[in-house]
Amino acid sequence: MDIGFDLIAALMVAAFVAGMIDAIAGGGGLITIPALLAAGVPPVAAIATNKLQSTIGTGGAVIAFARRGHIDWRKFAVPIAASFAGSAVGAFILTRIDSTFLSALLPALLIAMALYYCFAPRMSDADRHSRAGPLALAGVAMVIGCYDGFFGPGTGSFFTTALVAVFGLGLIRAVAHAKVLNLASNVAGLAVLVAGGHVLWIIGLAMAVGSAAGGQAGAHFAMRFGAGIARPLLIVSSLALTARLLADPANPLTAMVLGWVG
Questions:
Q1: CA distances from 9 to 14, 39, 236 (A)
Q2: Taking the CB of residue 94, how many other CB atoms lie within 10 A of it?
Q3: CA nearest neighbour of 1 among 59, 41, 35
Q4: Cβ distance 246 to 254 under 8 Å?
Q5: d(Cα 125, Cα 130) in Å, to the nearest integer?
Q6: Which of 5, 56, 86, 170 has the fewest CB atoms within 10 Å, i.e. the most exposed one?
Q7: CB–CB of 50/32 below 8 Å?
Q8: φ and ψ at 168, to 5 degrees?
Q9: 77-109 pLDDT, tens per residue?
Q10: What is the pLDDT of residues 127-181, one digit of tens each?
Q11: Using an 8 Å Cβ cutoff, are 31 and 238 in contact?
Q12: Contact, 230 vs 19, CB < 8 A?
């Protein structure tokens, strides 16, 4: 596809907004993936390119948490490996799916993720008793990792929610370990998609710069003004970009609905 400066600039702005929101509430992929699709990037390439910029951003967060001693590497070694393996499988499945079917599936997944963020529970920072053991943790990590390799948005929130609700971690420790699990799934998914030649490197690296700057701005915003506005902004932005995708009569999902109505 033709990559112009205006397209790269627009996607960098989208990545900046996504990085800012991701630093506050998570879910930045709900903005970057539909932005890439709206720019005309094919579905698999859009997910692959988003995976590149997401991996860089998540890696920075892991380094920050590790320096502060929030990560128990020994306890999470097996879940990290499970997340890595699950993501590799998910990314492999992604590369084998028909692009027409994927074009119809992605808007539905984006809407489902927006609804998840509407109703996701608030979480506490206090550690609680774990409701499941290490094998269950590895299994959950593999399933969520598979989802991340296949699609991605919301992966960090899924990991965090599971670690708090099922495995008893406080919010800060849950977020720290969710970032590690997410980094493992990002690296594995990215490796599979790079091997398949699906990553648009210029766009992905440019978006990574925008995402990193947005992450810094989001952290500053959260500390100064609070995080209350981030979730509504994420939902509205995601739905608006998804509506932009569905407004195209050539979208398979739109064409199917119009066929039913007609």
A1: 9, 11, 22
A2: 23
A3: 41
A4: yes
A5: 14
A6: 5
A7: yes
A8: 75, 10
A9: 999 999 999 999 999 999 998 878 887 888 888
A10: 555 566 778 999 999 999 999 999 888 788 788 888 887 887 877 788 789 889 9
A11: yes
A12: no
State the first-to-last Cα distance of the chain, in angstroms, to the nearest integer: 33
Domain ranges for the chain = 5-261
Q: What's the chain's length in residues?
A: 262
> Which candidate, 26, 254, 30, 69, places its Cα nearest to that of 173?
69
Q: Are 2 and 19 within 8 A, CB to CB?
A: no
Crossing angle (nearest 10°) for helices 43-67 and 5-24: 40
Q: Give me the phi and psi of 178, to 5 degrees please.
A: -65, -40
Contact yes or no for 37/66 (Cβ under 8 A): no
* Angle at 182 (CA atoms; ends 7, 142), nearest 5 degrees: 125
CB atoms within 10 A of CB 107: 21
Q: How far apart are CA 84 and CA 65, in angstroms?
A: 19
d(CA 258, CA 162): 38
